[in-house]
Design brief:
Blueprint: H1 11-26, E1 29-32, E2 37-39, E3 44-47, H2 49-60, H3 62-66, H4 79-89, E4 98-101, E5 112-116, E6 128-133, E7 138-139, E8 147-155, H5 162-165, H6 171-178, E9 189-190, E10 194-195, H7 207-210, H8 242-246, E11 259-269, E12 275-279, E13 289-290, E14 293-298
Parallel strand pairs: 1-3
Antiparallel strand pairs: 2-3, 4-14, 5-6, 5-14, 6-8, 7-8, 8-11, 9-10, 11-12, 12-13
Length: 299
């Protein structure tokens, strides 16, 4: 893993970051699956996103893992359970070992990002997605309104990677990103479940305008605004430099198989810096997906 020079904010997040990097170095064979098969002797990791985070927490902070609410009768917490627990903890914590971060710019290595499944992904069986930050975020120099964040997770569909980032900021890359796909095979894979299909919308209506918050708003979290994030977002964030972009991890996971690995996601924030939407493949995805996003940290 590249060293971005960023430091975790707490002892807990530092331990989670170190364990994530250690596990990434152990992977020899991996795939995304609802089961849970881990054999470090052979480097075999077959699990899903919440299983991956649970694996890390079990090693570094089992008490924090034990406090995560479990919806239904599931043996391990799901993505929506991590989302709910971080929401409940609040910015000052609630004695469970978790803290909730308010702004994207607060993210540091070892922090957790948990989002709910967007409404347009209703066919997916996943409740959302969880991942661990590998570095502090930076503004995407090629797309106003997007924050790039390197993450470690377990997914069925790759995130953005070094190959996509190398041309970022060039007129060619921006033109290619803005161009509509030539066929259905060009659609982006989203949320680790299915390939993204271009949404249908009325004439004059942008894809962002038809995006609606995902399920889970009965939990009490505020509904994210369904407006395009302004260009000047996430106060306190620097623009990603050429050297920072060059150091971003390359996501080598194969679509449809996936597994444990690292890549780059994109986040959009409102004027206060609170996350309101994501791009599954940071810097690459054509459409952002609006949903409720929680940023968590271990104390």
């Amino acid at each position: 893993m590249p060293n971005f020079g960023d430091q975790p904010a707490t002892e807990g997040s530092g331990a989670l970051y170190a364990e994530a990097v250690r596990v990434l170095s152990q992977v020899r064979s991996t795939r995304y699956t609802g089961s849970f098969v881990v054999d470090e002797d052979t480097g075999r990791f077959e699990l899903n996103c919440s299983g991956f985070l649970s694996l890390l927490l079990y090693e570094v902070n089992p008490s924090a893992l034990a406090t995560v609410d479990r919806s239904g009768k599931h043996y391990r917490p799901r993505a929506e359970d991590f989302h709910r627990s971080i929401l409940r903890a609040g910015p000052k914590g609630d004695g469970t070992g978790w803290l909730r971060l308010e702004r994207v710019s607060d993210l540091r290595p070892g922090d957790v990002v948990a989002w709910l499944r967007p409404a347009e992904r209703s066919a997916s069986s996943a409740t959302g997605h969880v991942m661990v930050a590998l570095a502090s975020p930076r503004l995407n120099p090629a797309r106003p309104g997007e924050v790039l964040l390197p993450v470690a997770d377990c997914t069925l569909s790759p995130h953005g990677d070094l190959a996509a980032m190398q041309g970022v900021g060039s007129p060619e890359s921006e033109a290619a990103r803005a161009a509509p796909p030539n066929d259905a095979s060009a659609a982006e894979p989203v949320a680790g479940q299915a390939r993204e299909q271009a949404p249908t919308h009325a004439p004059g209506q942008t894809p962002e305008q038809i995006l609606t918050p995902g399920p889970g708003f009965s939990l009490g979290q505020p509904r994210p605004p369904q407006v395009e994030a302004p260009s000047a977002i996430a106060p306190g964030l620097e623009r990603g430099s050429a050297a920072w972009l060059a150091a971003l991890p390359r996501d080598t996971r194969e679509p449809g198989i996936g597994g444990v690995g690292s890549g780059v996601i994109g986040l959009a924030a409102d004027a206060t810096g609170h996350p309101v939407a994501y791009w599954w493949r940071g810097g690459v995805s054509r459409h952002r997906l609006v949903t409720s996003i929680m940023l968590g940290r271990l104390e």
